[in-house]
Amino acid sequence: MKIGVPKEIKNNENRVAMTPAGVISLKHAGHHVFVETEAGLGSGFTDEQYILAGAEIVSTAKEAWQQEMVMKVKEPLSEEYDYFYEGLILFTYLHLAAEPALTKALIDKKVVGIAYETVQLQNGSLPLLTPMSEVAGRMASQIGAQFLEKSKGGKGILLAGIPGVKRGKVTVIGGGVVGTNAAKIAAGLGADVTIMDLNPERLRQLDDIFGSSINTFMSNPLNIADALSESDLVIGAVLIPGAKAPKLVTEDMVKSMKDGSVIVDVAIDQGGIFETTDRITTHDNPTYVKHGVLHYAVANMPGAVPRTSTIGLTNVTVPYALQLANKGYQQACLDNSALLKGINTLDGYVTYKAVAESHQLDYASAEERLNS
Ligand SMILES: NC(=O)C1=CN([C@@H]2O[C@H](COP(=O)(O)OP(=O)(O)OC[C@H]3O[C@@H](n4cnc5c(N)ncnc54)[C@H](O)[C@@H]3O)[C@@H](O)[C@H]2O)C=CC1
Ligand SMILES: CC(=O)C(=O)O
Protein backbone atom coordinates (compact mmCIF):
# COMPACT_ATOMS: atom_id res chain seq x y z
CA MET A 1 0.00 0.00 0.00
CA LYS A 2 1.07 3.60 -0.59
CA ILE A 3 0.95 5.62 2.62
CA GLY A 4 1.18 9.41 2.82
CA VAL A 5 2.37 11.40 5.85
CA PRO A 6 1.61 15.13 5.47
CA LYS A 7 3.12 17.84 7.66
CA GLU A 8 0.71 18.93 10.41
CA ILE A 9 -0.66 22.45 9.92
CA LYS A 10 -2.55 23.11 13.17
CA ASN A 11 -1.20 25.95 15.35
CA ASN A 12 2.04 24.83 17.01
CA GLU A 13 1.43 21.21 16.10
CA ASN A 14 4.91 19.77 15.87
CA ARG A 15 4.03 16.10 16.05
CA VAL A 16 4.22 13.85 12.98
CA ALA A 17 2.26 10.65 12.30
CA MET A 18 5.27 8.44 11.64
CA THR A 19 8.86 8.16 12.84
CA PRO A 20 11.69 6.71 10.72
CA ALA A 21 11.30 3.53 12.84
CA GLY A 22 7.68 3.30 11.67
CA VAL A 23 8.79 3.71 8.05
CA ILE A 24 11.20 0.80 8.46
CA SER A 25 8.38 -1.45 9.79
CA LEU A 26 6.11 -0.57 6.87
CA LYS A 27 8.89 -0.94 4.29
CA HIS A 28 9.76 -4.38 5.70
CA ALA A 29 6.17 -5.40 5.05
CA GLY A 30 6.44 -4.22 1.42
CA HIS A 31 4.69 -0.85 1.65
CA HIS A 32 5.74 2.58 0.36
CA VAL A 33 5.76 5.64 2.58
CA PHE A 34 5.64 9.20 1.21
CA VAL A 35 6.59 11.83 3.80
CA GLU A 36 6.08 15.55 3.13
CA THR A 37 9.36 17.41 3.35
CA GLU A 38 10.17 18.67 6.88
CA ALA A 39 7.10 16.92 8.33
CA GLY A 40 9.26 15.41 11.09
CA LEU A 41 11.48 18.40 11.88
CA GLY A 42 9.36 19.64 14.80
CA SER A 43 9.78 16.24 16.44
CA GLY A 44 13.50 16.11 15.68
CA PHE A 45 13.35 13.79 12.63
CA THR A 46 15.09 15.04 9.46
CA ASP A 47 14.26 14.23 5.83
CA GLU A 48 17.61 12.41 5.64
CA GLN A 49 16.59 10.09 8.49
CA TYR A 50 13.34 9.26 6.67
CA ILE A 51 15.21 8.61 3.42
CA LEU A 52 17.65 6.30 5.21
CA ALA A 53 14.64 4.44 6.67
CA GLY A 54 13.32 3.93 3.13
CA ALA A 55 10.71 6.70 2.76
CA GLU A 56 10.28 8.91 -0.27
CA ILE A 57 10.24 12.63 0.53
CA VAL A 58 7.61 14.62 -1.37
CA SER A 59 7.76 18.38 -1.66
CA THR A 60 4.05 19.20 -1.32
CA ALA A 61 1.14 18.33 0.96
CA LYS A 62 -0.86 17.42 -2.16
CA GLU A 63 1.54 14.58 -3.03
CA ALA A 64 1.38 13.21 0.54
CA TRP A 65 -2.43 13.35 0.41
CA GLN A 66 -2.64 11.54 -2.97
CA GLN A 67 -1.73 8.15 -1.45
CA GLU A 68 -4.10 5.26 -0.66
CA MET A 69 -3.88 5.78 3.09
CA VAL A 70 -3.01 9.05 4.80
CA MET A 71 -1.74 9.01 8.38
CA LYS A 72 -1.94 12.20 10.38
CA VAL A 73 -1.97 13.33 13.98
CA LYS A 74 -4.69 16.00 14.18
CA GLU A 75 -8.06 16.18 12.48
CA PRO A 76 -7.82 17.79 9.02
CA LEU A 77 -8.39 21.56 8.94
CA SER A 78 -10.76 23.09 6.38
CA GLU A 79 -7.89 23.94 4.02
CA GLU A 80 -7.12 20.19 3.83
CA TYR A 81 -10.66 19.07 2.90
CA ASP A 82 -9.95 19.59 -0.82
CA TYR A 83 -7.46 16.72 -0.66
CA PHE A 84 -10.20 14.21 0.25
CA TYR A 85 -11.25 11.74 -2.44
CA GLU A 86 -13.60 8.76 -2.57
CA GLY A 87 -12.06 5.67 -0.97
CA LEU A 88 -9.17 7.50 0.73
CA ILE A 89 -8.29 5.79 4.05
CA LEU A 90 -7.69 8.54 6.61
CA PHE A 91 -6.12 7.27 9.85
CA THR A 92 -5.80 10.04 12.46
CA TYR A 93 -7.50 11.72 15.43
CA LEU A 94 -10.86 12.99 14.14
CA HIS A 95 -12.98 14.05 17.17
CA LEU A 96 -15.99 14.24 14.84
CA ALA A 97 -18.62 14.79 17.57
CA ALA A 98 -17.13 18.28 17.95
CA GLU A 99 -16.48 18.76 14.19
CA PRO A 100 -19.69 19.07 12.12
CA ALA A 101 -18.00 20.58 9.04
CA LEU A 102 -15.32 17.88 8.94
CA THR A 103 -17.96 15.16 9.37
CA LYS A 104 -19.88 16.55 6.39
CA ALA A 105 -16.73 16.77 4.25
CA LEU A 106 -15.77 13.15 5.01
CA ILE A 107 -19.28 11.95 4.18
CA ASP A 108 -19.58 14.04 1.01
CA LYS A 109 -16.26 12.73 -0.30
CA LYS A 110 -16.90 9.14 0.89
CA VAL A 111 -13.64 8.98 2.85
CA VAL A 112 -12.93 5.94 5.05
CA GLY A 113 -12.35 7.88 8.27
CA ILE A 114 -10.69 5.76 10.97
CA ALA A 115 -10.35 7.72 14.21
CA TYR A 116 -7.51 6.89 16.57
CA GLU A 117 -9.62 7.96 19.55
CA THR A 118 -12.41 5.41 18.99
CA VAL A 119 -10.26 2.34 18.34
CA GLN A 120 -11.35 0.38 21.41
CA LEU A 121 -10.27 -2.92 22.94
CA GLN A 122 -12.78 -5.33 24.44
CA ASN A 123 -11.94 -4.15 27.98
CA GLY A 124 -13.12 -0.66 26.96
CA SER A 125 -9.66 0.93 26.82
CA LEU A 126 -8.63 3.24 23.98
CA PRO A 127 -5.11 2.18 22.99
CA LEU A 128 -4.49 4.95 20.45
CA LEU A 129 -5.69 7.70 22.80
CA THR A 130 -3.92 6.49 25.94
CA PRO A 131 -0.36 7.79 25.35
CA MET A 132 -1.59 11.28 24.39
CA SER A 133 -3.92 11.31 27.40
CA GLU A 134 -0.92 10.42 29.55
CA VAL A 135 0.96 13.39 28.09
CA ALA A 136 -1.97 15.83 28.34
CA GLY A 137 -2.85 14.71 31.89
CA ARG A 138 0.71 15.22 33.09
CA MET A 139 0.89 18.57 31.29
CA ALA A 140 -2.44 19.76 32.72
CA SER A 141 -1.16 20.04 36.29
CA GLN A 142 2.15 21.52 35.15
CA ILE A 143 0.32 24.12 33.03
CA GLY A 144 -2.18 24.88 35.78
CA ALA A 145 0.65 25.47 38.25
CA GLN A 146 2.28 27.92 35.80
CA PHE A 147 -0.91 29.90 35.15
CA LEU A 148 -1.54 30.26 38.88
CA GLU A 149 1.56 32.48 38.97
CA LYS A 150 0.72 36.19 39.28
CA SER A 151 2.73 37.19 36.19
CA LYS A 152 0.68 34.72 34.12
CA GLY A 153 -2.63 36.19 35.34
CA GLY A 154 -3.23 33.72 38.16
CA LYS A 155 -4.00 34.37 41.82
CA GLY A 156 -0.34 34.00 42.77
CA ILE A 157 -0.19 30.78 44.70
CA LEU A 158 2.29 27.93 44.82
CA LEU A 159 0.46 24.59 44.64
CA ALA A 160 2.88 23.01 47.11
CA GLY A 161 2.44 25.79 49.68
CA ILE A 162 5.32 26.06 52.18
CA PRO A 163 5.57 25.23 55.88
CA GLY A 164 3.08 27.54 57.59
CA VAL A 165 1.18 28.36 54.38
CA LYS A 166 -1.60 26.12 53.01
CA ARG A 167 -1.29 24.08 49.83
CA GLY A 168 -3.25 24.82 46.67
CA LYS A 169 -6.41 22.83 45.90
CA VAL A 170 -6.69 20.90 42.64
CA THR A 171 -9.92 19.23 41.49
CA VAL A 172 -9.79 16.74 38.63
CA ILE A 173 -13.14 15.78 37.06
CA GLY A 174 -12.85 12.40 35.33
CA GLY A 175 -10.59 9.69 36.71
CA GLY A 176 -9.46 7.92 33.52
CA VAL A 177 -6.07 8.22 31.87
CA VAL A 178 -5.93 12.05 31.75
CA GLY A 179 -7.34 12.38 35.26
CA THR A 180 -5.02 9.82 36.82
CA ASN A 181 -1.95 11.36 35.24
CA ALA A 182 -3.04 14.89 36.20
CA ALA A 183 -3.62 13.75 39.79
CA LYS A 184 -0.24 12.02 39.91
CA ILE A 185 1.62 15.19 38.92
CA ALA A 186 -0.52 17.51 41.08
CA ALA A 187 0.01 15.26 44.13
CA GLY A 188 3.72 15.10 43.27
CA LEU A 189 3.82 18.91 43.27
CA GLY A 190 2.39 18.81 46.80
CA ALA A 191 -1.15 20.04 46.05
CA ASP A 192 -4.29 19.00 47.90
CA VAL A 193 -5.92 16.86 45.19
CA THR A 194 -9.52 15.71 44.71
CA ILE A 195 -10.54 13.45 41.84
CA MET A 196 -14.12 12.72 40.79
CA ASP A 197 -15.57 10.01 38.59
CA LEU A 198 -18.99 8.60 37.87
CA ASN A 199 -17.79 5.03 38.07
CA PRO A 200 -17.51 3.74 41.67
CA GLU A 201 -15.22 0.91 40.57
CA ARG A 202 -12.84 3.48 39.11
CA LEU A 203 -12.92 5.45 42.37
CA ARG A 204 -11.92 2.26 44.20
CA GLN A 205 -9.02 1.71 41.82
CA LEU A 206 -7.89 5.33 42.30
CA ASP A 207 -8.06 4.88 46.06
CA ASP A 208 -5.88 1.78 45.74
CA ILE A 209 -3.38 3.64 43.52
CA PHE A 210 -3.10 6.85 45.53
CA GLY A 211 -4.07 5.85 49.06
CA SER A 212 -4.57 8.86 51.29
CA SER A 213 -2.54 11.23 49.08
CA ILE A 214 -5.70 12.23 47.18
CA ASN A 215 -9.45 12.50 47.92
CA THR A 216 -11.94 10.61 45.76
CA PHE A 217 -15.53 11.77 45.24
CA MET A 218 -18.50 10.61 43.25
CA SER A 219 -19.08 12.99 40.34
CA ASN A 220 -22.44 14.72 40.79
CA PRO A 221 -23.58 18.34 40.51
CA LEU A 222 -23.50 18.91 44.29
CA ASN A 223 -19.97 17.58 44.79
CA ILE A 224 -18.73 19.44 41.71
CA ALA A 225 -20.24 22.73 42.92
CA ASP A 226 -18.73 22.30 46.41
CA ALA A 227 -15.28 21.47 45.07
CA LEU A 228 -15.27 24.27 42.49
CA SER A 229 -15.90 27.05 44.98
CA GLU A 230 -12.77 26.02 46.92
CA SER A 231 -10.43 25.05 44.07
CA ASP A 232 -7.45 26.93 42.73
CA LEU A 233 -7.10 24.66 39.71
CA VAL A 234 -9.80 22.53 38.05
CA ILE A 235 -8.98 20.02 35.33
CA GLY A 236 -11.62 18.66 32.91
CA ALA A 237 -10.83 15.02 32.06
CA VAL A 238 -14.16 13.33 31.24
CA LEU A 239 -14.74 11.20 28.16
CA ILE A 240 -17.73 9.36 26.77
CA PRO A 241 -16.03 7.66 23.81
CA GLY A 242 -16.83 9.30 20.49
CA ALA A 243 -19.51 11.57 21.99
CA LYS A 244 -19.59 15.27 22.69
CA ALA A 245 -18.34 15.92 26.23
CA PRO A 246 -21.13 16.51 28.79
CA LYS A 247 -21.24 20.06 30.21
CA LEU A 248 -20.81 19.07 33.87
CA VAL A 249 -19.65 22.46 35.17
CA THR A 250 -22.19 25.26 34.89
CA GLU A 251 -21.44 28.93 34.42
CA ASP A 252 -22.66 29.60 38.00
CA MET A 253 -20.17 27.09 39.38
CA VAL A 254 -17.37 28.90 37.52
CA LYS A 255 -18.63 32.23 38.91
CA SER A 256 -18.22 30.75 42.42
CA MET A 257 -14.46 30.32 41.87
CA LYS A 258 -12.12 33.02 43.16
CA ASP A 259 -10.51 35.49 40.75
CA GLY A 260 -7.23 34.20 39.33
CA SER A 261 -8.21 30.53 39.66
CA VAL A 262 -7.42 28.33 36.65
CA ILE A 263 -9.41 25.88 34.53
CA VAL A 264 -7.60 23.44 32.21
CA ASP A 265 -10.25 21.73 30.08
CA VAL A 266 -8.38 18.81 28.54
CA ALA A 267 -11.67 17.40 27.22
CA ILE A 268 -12.03 20.43 24.92
CA ASP A 269 -11.20 18.21 21.91
CA GLN A 270 -14.63 16.63 22.45
CA GLY A 271 -16.29 20.00 23.15
CA GLY A 272 -15.23 20.54 26.79
CA ILE A 273 -16.98 19.91 30.13
CA PHE A 274 -17.34 23.55 31.29
CA GLU A 275 -20.21 25.75 30.06
CA THR A 276 -17.60 28.52 29.91
CA THR A 277 -15.15 26.65 27.66
CA ASP A 278 -17.07 27.77 24.62
CA ARG A 279 -13.99 28.15 22.41
CA ILE A 280 -10.80 26.28 21.60
CA THR A 281 -7.53 28.12 22.33
CA THR A 282 -4.10 27.63 20.75
CA HIS A 283 -0.56 27.24 22.05
CA ASP A 284 0.12 30.79 20.75
CA ASN A 285 -2.71 32.28 22.78
CA PRO A 286 -3.66 29.56 25.26
CA THR A 287 -5.91 31.32 27.78
CA TYR A 288 -8.83 33.70 28.12
CA VAL A 289 -10.50 35.10 31.23
CA LYS A 290 -14.18 34.63 32.03
CA HIS A 291 -15.74 35.58 35.39
CA GLY A 292 -12.20 36.31 36.64
CA VAL A 293 -11.08 32.70 36.00
CA LEU A 294 -8.29 31.81 33.53
CA HIS A 295 -9.46 29.23 31.01
CA TYR A 296 -6.94 27.04 29.14
CA ALA A 297 -8.61 25.08 26.30
CA VAL A 298 -5.92 23.88 23.90
CA ALA A 299 -7.11 20.88 21.88
CA ASN A 300 -3.64 19.62 20.96
CA MET A 301 -1.75 19.87 24.22
CA PRO A 302 0.73 17.06 23.37
CA GLY A 303 1.81 19.15 20.35
CA ALA A 304 3.86 21.25 22.80
CA VAL A 305 6.10 18.28 23.66
CA PRO A 306 6.36 16.75 20.19
CA ARG A 307 9.39 14.56 20.66
CA THR A 308 7.86 12.62 23.57
CA SER A 309 4.40 12.67 22.00
CA THR A 310 5.35 11.59 18.47
CA ILE A 311 7.30 8.60 19.75
CA GLY A 312 4.51 7.72 22.23
CA LEU A 313 1.83 8.01 19.55
CA THR A 314 3.60 6.10 16.79
CA ASN A 315 4.56 3.29 19.21
CA VAL A 316 0.85 2.45 19.29
CA THR A 317 -0.42 3.49 15.84
CA VAL A 318 2.12 1.74 13.61
CA PRO A 319 1.04 -1.84 14.53
CA TYR A 320 -2.55 -0.90 13.52
CA ALA A 321 -1.31 0.83 10.35
CA LEU A 322 0.49 -2.39 9.45
CA GLN A 323 -2.75 -4.37 9.78
CA LEU A 324 -4.61 -1.86 7.56
CA ALA A 325 -1.85 -1.89 4.95
CA ASN A 326 -1.21 -5.65 4.97
CA LYS A 327 -4.82 -6.79 4.76
CA GLY A 328 -6.61 -3.77 3.29
CA TYR A 329 -8.90 -1.80 5.61
CA GLN A 330 -11.94 -4.03 5.00
CA GLN A 331 -10.33 -7.32 6.12
CA ALA A 332 -8.23 -5.65 8.83
CA CYS A 333 -11.34 -4.15 10.44
CA LEU A 334 -13.38 -7.34 10.09
CA ASP A 335 -10.53 -9.32 11.73
CA ASN A 336 -9.93 -6.84 14.55
CA SER A 337 -12.95 -5.56 16.48
CA ALA A 338 -10.89 -2.74 18.05
CA LEU A 339 -10.03 -1.35 14.62
CA LEU A 340 -13.63 -1.82 13.44
CA LYS A 341 -14.74 0.56 16.21
CA GLY A 342 -12.35 3.13 14.81
CA ILE A 343 -14.34 3.52 11.56
CA ASN A 344 -16.31 6.76 11.94
CA THR A 345 -17.21 7.34 8.27
CA LEU A 346 -17.55 4.89 5.39
CA ASP A 347 -19.18 5.00 1.94
CA GLY A 348 -20.77 8.38 2.71
CA TYR A 349 -22.28 7.26 6.05
CA VAL A 350 -21.48 8.02 9.67
CA THR A 351 -20.61 4.65 11.18
CA TYR A 352 -20.07 5.70 14.81
CA LYS A 353 -23.34 6.04 16.74
CA ALA A 354 -22.30 8.82 19.13
CA VAL A 355 -21.09 10.94 16.20
CA ALA A 356 -24.32 10.39 14.24
CA GLU A 357 -26.34 11.36 17.33
CA SER A 358 -24.25 14.50 17.91
CA HIS A 359 -25.08 15.79 14.43
CA GLN A 360 -28.53 14.21 13.99
CA LEU A 361 -27.25 12.25 11.03
CA ASP A 362 -28.25 8.74 9.90
CA TYR A 363 -26.12 5.98 11.36
CA ALA A 364 -24.99 2.90 9.42
CA SER A 365 -23.16 -0.08 10.90
CA ALA A 366 -19.57 -0.32 9.61
CA GLU A 367 -19.63 -4.10 9.97
CA GLU A 368 -22.80 -4.41 7.87
CA ARG A 369 -21.39 -2.13 5.19
CA LEU A 370 -18.12 -4.07 5.08
CA ASN A 371 -19.99 -7.35 4.74
CA SER A 372 -22.43 -6.06 2.10
N1 LIG B 1 -6.70 18.57 24.79
C1 LIG B 1 -5.83 17.64 24.42
O1 LIG B 1 -4.77 17.94 23.88
C2 LIG B 1 -6.10 16.21 24.71
C3 LIG B 1 -7.36 15.84 25.08
N2 LIG B 1 -7.63 14.54 25.44
C4 LIG B 1 -9.00 14.29 25.85
O2 LIG B 1 -9.13 14.14 27.25
C5 LIG B 1 -10.39 13.51 27.51
C6 LIG B 1 -10.19 12.39 28.54
O3 LIG B 1 -9.49 11.31 27.94
P1 LIG B 1 -9.07 9.99 28.75
O4 LIG B 1 -8.68 10.30 30.13
O5 LIG B 1 -8.12 9.25 27.89
O6 LIG B 1 -10.44 9.18 28.78
P2 LIG B 1 -10.76 7.92 29.70
O7 LIG B 1 -11.81 7.15 28.99
O8 LIG B 1 -9.52 7.22 30.13
O9 LIG B 1 -11.38 8.59 31.02
C7 LIG B 1 -12.58 9.27 31.04
C8 LIG B 1 -13.18 9.14 32.43
O10 LIG B 1 -14.33 9.97 32.49
C9 LIG B 1 -15.21 9.32 33.38
N3 LIG B 1 -16.53 9.93 33.30
C10 LIG B 1 -17.52 9.74 32.39
N4 LIG B 1 -18.59 10.51 32.70
C11 LIG B 1 -18.25 11.20 33.82
C12 LIG B 1 -18.92 12.16 34.62
N5 LIG B 1 -20.17 12.55 34.36
N6 LIG B 1 -18.25 12.66 35.69
C13 LIG B 1 -16.99 12.28 35.99
N7 LIG B 1 -16.32 11.37 35.27
C14 LIG B 1 -16.95 10.83 34.21
C15 LIG B 1 -15.14 7.86 32.97
O11 LIG B 1 -15.66 7.02 33.97
C16 LIG B 1 -13.64 7.71 32.77
O12 LIG B 1 -13.00 7.25 33.96
C17 LIG B 1 -10.88 13.02 26.13
O13 LIG B 1 -11.81 13.95 25.62
C18 LIG B 1 -9.62 13.03 25.30
O14 LIG B 1 -9.88 13.10 23.91
C19 LIG B 1 -6.67 13.56 25.42
C20 LIG B 1 -5.40 13.88 25.02
C21 LIG B 1 -5.02 15.22 24.58
C1 LIG C 1 -5.93 13.29 21.58
C2 LIG C 1 -5.64 14.51 20.85
O1 LIG C 1 -6.54 15.14 20.33
C3 LIG C 1 -4.29 14.98 20.72
O2 LIG C 1 -3.37 14.29 21.16
O3 LIG C 1 -4.09 16.07 20.15
TrEMBL record:
Its EC number is 1.4.1.1. Substrate binds at R15, K74. One of its GO terms (cellular component) is plasma membrane. The keyword NAD applies. Coiled coil: none annotated. The active site is at H95, D269. Signal peptide: none annotated. CDD domains: L-AlaDH. InterPro entries: Ala_DH, Ala_DH/PNT_CS2, AlaDH/PNT_CS1, AlaDH/PNT_N, AlaDH/PNT_NAD(H)-bd, NAD(P)-bd_dom_sf. It catalyses: L-alanine + NAD(+) + H2O = pyruvate + NH4(+) + NADH + H(+). Residues 148-297 form the Alanine dehydrogenase/pyridine nucleotide transhydrogenase NAD(H)-binding domain. Belongs to the AlaDH/PNT family. This is Alanine dehydrogenase. It comes from Terrihalobacillus insolitus.
